[in-house]
């Protein structure tokens, strides 16, 4: 019995470390982009593809993660996920140009996409239902720590060594994870799974990639307008083909019946459009601080600590606030606050007091955290047991897709304003950043209309929903 309890504790630590690696790597890159750009001879304002490649790859693989784990077994897939993540990290560190780095980030994203879903599935099968909530609470905490220390750690490594070390530090952690997985994760038998909906997956994956590349092509890839238009049309057509395909198939990846649930439909659309704006902030803020305000990488990383700290502290007050005021009031008002807070960075100047900037960043972290928790819980709250897994996977996919597209959109807007204002002088680059923050804030503000469609009566928040949102925010 004692040996079994030790194995369960080690399983929790193992999955928690995997989640930490995933969230750390999603944020550690942001403060190192200017250093990467210098080593590759690129403009730091055109480095968004490094972030987009990772997020988009994760969004692509999430729909297939459950089927892969059931088909090949959780332990085998988890070892494979860590191995891919480590191999991708090595490839990132060895990259000689931007193209190689983007390709390596795709490989890294393939592993990262499986770490949390498969790890969560292993915990679900190992722990009894009455202990699952407590187990997921434990796993969620390291996931919140990743964004807290990632930017600062990235900035510190750039200053004391080189940007390559932000990827090399994953190697010993990954090797330890592989060994621990073999020892402590149960070798669960492979399940008899239905045939994978490969045509539907290809429709969905191609649609997401094409639309995202069309947005990124406006700046990062240097595609001409005609190529962008063709990619966009093909991507939208592929997504439309998926839903037509899913309506005819008895076991689609995501059933169209999910969208008969109003809270899920509104929650997913709100997630997509509000994150299109807000997800660009971890990309834009470190760039602004280093390129236009003359911060060092370490200083820029430290300035992201108030965002993560305020985000963690706000989690405690979100549930009581929603219970008292209802989802619609909270989400409409808070979406407006997120958009206005983002737009307030258009006022950033080198003469701005440091204290005011810290307050500004902490305020964004607080309202953004509340936004994520409220959006996630409203999306999942009305799903029954037969739809919970599919709805959760769909939410995770939309989150990662919106993150990638948000960074791509911010890069495109920044490139457009850079071409308008010019990039020869620091003041011109600052104007480009200011205009970009204003535009991305307006995009977020516009999504408040989606949450207005919620019923005013929807207000109760179950403890399980709020806890689940902690791990997905």
Question: Can you give a write-up of this model?
Answer:
With 473 residues, the chain is an all-alpha fold. It folds into 3 domains: 1-194, MFS general substrate transporter like domains (Growth Hormone, Chain: A, Up-down Bundle); 198-252, no CATH class; 255-473, Up-down Bundle (Growth Hormone, Chain: A), CATH 1.20.1250. Helix content is 80%, strand content 0%. It contains 20 helices and no strands. The two termini are 35 Å apart. The model is unreliable at 460-471 (pLDDT under 50).
Number of strands: 0
Percent strand? under 5%
CATH class of the largest domain: Mainly Alpha
The end-to-end distance, rounded to whole angstroms, is 35 Å
Largest sheet: none
Short description:
The chain is mainly alpha-helical. The chain has helices spanning 2-28, 33-40, 48-72, 74-94, 98-126, 129-160, 165-168, 170-184, 198-217, 225-248, 262-278, 281-292, 297-302, 305-325, 327-344, 354-380, 385-421, 426-446, 448-451, 463-472.
Write out key terms for the chains shown.
473 residues; Growth Hormone, Chain: A; 3 domains; 20 helices; 80% helix
Topology, please?
Blueprint: H1 2-28, H2 33-40, H3 48-72, H4 74-94, H5 98-126, H6 129-160, H7 165-168, H8 170-184, H9 198-217, H10 225-248, H11 262-278, H12 281-292, H13 297-302, H14 305-325, H15 327-344, H16 354-380, H17 385-421, H18 426-446, H19 448-451, H20 463-472
Helix pairs in contact: 1-5, 1-6, 1-8, 3-4, 3-5, 3-9, 3-17, 4-5, 4-8, 6-14, 6-20, 9-10, 9-17, 11-16, 11-17, 11-18, 12-18, 14-15, 14-16, 15-16, 15-18, 16-20, 17-18
